[in-house]
Amino acid sequence: MADYPKDDFTQLIKRFGAFLTVKISNVFHSLDSRSIGALAGLAFAVVFTWRVLRSPSQRRRPKRQTGAPSSSSASSNTNANVTTSASDPSPENSRAQNVIDEFFQPVKPTLGQIVRQRLSEGRKVTCQLLGVILEETSPEELQKQATVKPSVLKVLLEITKCCDLYLMERVLDDESEKKVLLALEDAGVFTSGGLVKDKVLFCSTENGRTSFVRQLEPDWHIDTNPEIVTQLARFIKYQLHISPTKPERAASNVFSSTSLEQFFGCV
Predict the structure, then answer these.
(1) Entry pTM
(2) Burial class (CB in 10 A: 0-12, 13-18, 19+), 91
(3) 193: three-class secondary structure by DSSP
(4) If both were cysteines, with which of 69, 93, 160, 230 could 89 make a disulfide (CB 3.0 to 4.6 Å apart)?
(5) Of 79, 76, 73, 12, nearest in space to 46 by CA
(6) What are the CA-CA distances from residue 73 to residues 1, 69, 79, 237 (Å)?
(7) Angstrom distance (rounded) from CA 209 to CA 254
(8) What is the pLDDT of residues 94-133, one digit of tens each?
(9) Residue 8 to residues 13, 85, 86, 143: CA-CA distances in angstroms?
């Protein structure tokens, strides 16, 4: 009779120990401002689970009757109790199992956590505007209008929260610069995120963008031009090449994706 709940309790402890190992490893791998809250929540879960598992064992068992039953009767009662215990667990054991099962449910990471993980905790990012942040794909289109992609806005704001972000693009005239800045301002990039207008850079040639990136020495650069990606592969730690065709990786430190939001799993 005592073996069943003991084995069940042992299995629960093993699962809980494995979970604690993973959680503690994650916390010490990346300490940030939320570490104290994570540890406090973990401690509360440990205490709560311990109290739930401990409470049934503290209840006193009823005293046995003084009369000694016959051997056949005792054997029959023992078999019946074992069968009942195995097929119909007590409410206390069921409650403990439910708590453990709920506690071990996988937690879906937030977009901010995904961004930090995908960027490998990089602290500085440079990013082209055309075809990545903006709907337009050429400087000629910017002379008419500039439109921020709604689908990329959340990702962009999360990047500004955890990284020093610089946006850059080649333009043909001053009016195009004004249209781009106005579009970013209307999208709330300068108010909701950590981006300032001084970190939106403009140049007149593609080589100018390459020079910007090399001078800033970012951890990540995001671009649609394969030639620029190839030229910068020797100098930049990581690059993300945005292309509708999602070409094969040109180098071990170059990643490819059809869009910025797709790279971070937002589509």
Answers:
(1) 0.61
(2) exposed
(3) coil
(4) 93
(5) 12
(6) 17, 6, 10, 77
(7) 18
(8) 777 776 666 666 778 888 899 988 998 789 999 999 999 9
(9) 9, 12, 11, 70
